[in-house]
Amino acid sequence: MKAGSILTLLLLGAYSGFGYEIARLEFGAVNVPFLQDGRYSASASKSQTPVTGSASAALVQAATVKGIVGVPLAYQIQTDFNPTWYSASGLPPGFVCEGSGLIHGTPSAVGTFSVHVEARDFFQTASATIIISVTHGSITPASVQGIIGVPFGYQISADNNATWYSAAGLPPGFICEGSGLIHGIPRAAGTYSVHVEARNLFETVSATIVITINHGAISASDAKGIVGVSFAYQISANNNPTWYSASGLPPGFVSEGSGLIQGIPRAAGTFAVRVEARNLFETVSATIHLTFSPGTITGGTPPPQPSSPFILYPFTGTNDGANPVAPLVQASDGNFYGTTRSGGRYTNGTVFKINGNGVLSSLHSFSGTNDGANPEGGLVQGRDGNFYGTTSAGGRYTNGTVFKITGSGVLTTLYSFSGAVDGANPVAGLVQGGDGSFYGTTPFAGRYANGTVFKISTTGVLTSLYSFSGAADGGSPAAGLVLGSDGGLYGTTSSGGSFTNGTVFRISTNGVLTGLHSFTGGDGANPQAALVRGRDGNFYGTTYGGGAYSSGTVFQITTNGVLTRLYSFTGTNDGANPKAALVRAGDGTFYGTTVFGGSSGDGTVFQINTNGGLADLHSFSGGDGANPEAGLVLASDGSFYGTTSNGGQQGGGTVFRFNFVPTQAVTISKSALHLTWSTEAGAQYQLQYKYDLSSSKWASQGDPVTAAGQTLTFTDSVTNGPRRFYRLLRSP
Length: 732
Hints:
Immunoglobulin-like, disordered N terminus
C-alpha cells in the first residue's frame, strides 16, 4: 500500500434509532467518520474522537437489590446506551452475570454484596456498583379462629419459596400438609400457640400462629305469626349441625332434623322454644320466642301496612345476568343467592345475591374459561358457610365445572369435567351428605355416555360413583339428588328405564344403585326435577311430560318404589310441563311451578296437597315474568321466592316473591262478614277460604281484585253457613 493512501474499514454496529452506528479503522492522513444517520464528515486530524452519537459519557445505573435466602433473584443491569457486553464481579455465591446484563441466581446465605458491573460497546466501557442485600425469609404471623365441629383450614404464608412446611402444637385432630395447609375438625374449645416452619433448600424459617377454637352458637331471633296462617322458621346455627331439635313448640308444630320449625298456629300466645343444634362434638342451644296474634274484630280500618312488590328484580341481560333457571337458596345471613344461565360481563352467566327488598349484587361473572360457563343448577350452602354449585359448560375441557364461591364472590374452580368417565355438562345442583362430601349428577358422558352420579370433596377430589347405561337403569339425569332418612340418595333420570321415559332410583354413597320405578308415559315421562320428602316419609316429584294430557304430572313414590300419580296437567289454565322440584310448606302441602300453560301460556305457580287437589295460584303473563324453570323456596319470613327464566321489563327473567297477606281487620254487620287488608295499588288479590283448618284444600272466593288504593275489603255471607277460615293471596 502506498504512502498517503486511505483504507477505511466499516464495521456495522447497533441500530440506535437514527441510523446505524459505524466504527472506523483508518490508514493515512484523512479520517472519514460516519455518523449514525449515514452521513459523514472529513477531517485531517488523526486524533479526532470517534463519533458515537452522544455528547456525554455513557452511564450504568447504580442500584440496590433485595433478595431472600432460597428465593430465585434476577436483576437486569440498566444503562443509557447500547452495550454489546456486560460483566460483573463480587457476586453472591452461586450467582452469574450473563453477557446480556442479566444477573441471576438463588441466594444461599444472608449478606450484603457490593457488585462491580461493567457495560461495554466498541468505543467505551462504563461501570457502577450495585448492592445486593440478601435477608432471611419470614412467615406471616396470624391469629385465626374456628368453631367446634366446623371443618377448619388455614394456609401458612411464607415468602421464602418454601418446599416443605411443618407445624407443632396443633389442636387435637389437626394435621399440617407439606404444602402448608393446616386443617381438621375442631373437637374442643381452646387457644393453641402453633409453631410453624417453612423450609427451602438453604434455610428454615419459623413463626407462631394462634388458633382459637370457639363454641358454636345459634342465632336466637324471635319471630311472629298469625293464628291460622301457615308458619315456618329456620333455625340458624354456625356450628355445622348434623341435626336440630326443638322443645316447647306450640301445639301442632313440628321441628325437622334440618332445623325447619313449621305448623299452623292454633291459638294466640308467646312460646319460649328451646332449640338445639348438634354436630359430632357438641350441642349448642338457645331460646327463641314465637308470638302468634289473632285476627281482630273492630269497627274501623287500621293504618295501611305497605308491602313489597311482587317482582323483586327484573334482569337487564347486562352485567347483572339474564335467564335464571335455578332455584334460589336462602343463606344463613338471610339473603338469597342464585345463578343466571347467561348475561354478565362475559355473557356466560353469573352468581348473584339479592335481599328481601330486591337489592341485587352480582358476585361473579363467568368468563367461559377455567371458571366455567352457563350455570343451570342451584347453589347449596355448605357447612363451611361457602356456596357450592356447577356450570354446564366451560372449564378446562369445556365440559362444565364444580365450583366453590364465598358470600363475597371469591370463586374457586374445584373440578373441570373431562367428558370421559367422570361425566360432562352438569345441569343440576349439589347436595351435601352426612360425610361432608357433595353429591351430584351429569346428564352426559360417563362410561356408557348416558350420564353419571359423582361425589366430590370440598377440596375438589371427584369420585365417579355410577355410570348410567341408558337401559333399565335409566339415562341422562337432569336433576339433583335428595338425601333420604335411610342415608341413601334418591333421584330421577330423564330418559331410559323399561319404557325409555325415565326412572326414579336410589343410590348408596358407595355407588350401589337400585331402580325404584320406570315411567310408562301414562304415569308421567321425562322427569327433570329433584324429589322432595313429605311429612309421611314418601317422596314427591314432577315429570316434564306424560300423564293423561301429555303435559306433565305430579306424583308420589314410596321408598319401596310404589308410585301414585297425583295430578295430570291439562296444558291449559292449570299449567304445563313442570321442570322444577316441589317445595313443602308448613301445612304439609306442596308448591311448585310450570314452565308453560296458564292463562297466558307463560307458566304458573300452583299448590297441591298429598291427595292431588291442585289450586292455580298465579299465571305469568310476560311482564311479570315468564317460563319459570326453577322451583320456589320457602323463606324464613313465610313468603315464597322464585325466578322466571324469561319475561320482565327487559325480557331477561325476574326474581319474584309470592306471599299470603294476613288479615288486617274483620267486621260483622247483620249477615255479612267484611274482611279488610292493607294493599298496594295495582296489585291483584285473591280471597280464599276453607272450612277445616286441618284441610290442605283452599277454595277461591270470587274473582281476583286489583287494588286501587291502600286497602281492600272483601264481603262474604255468614247466613246459616259453616265456619270458614280465610286467607288472601297476593299476585302481581
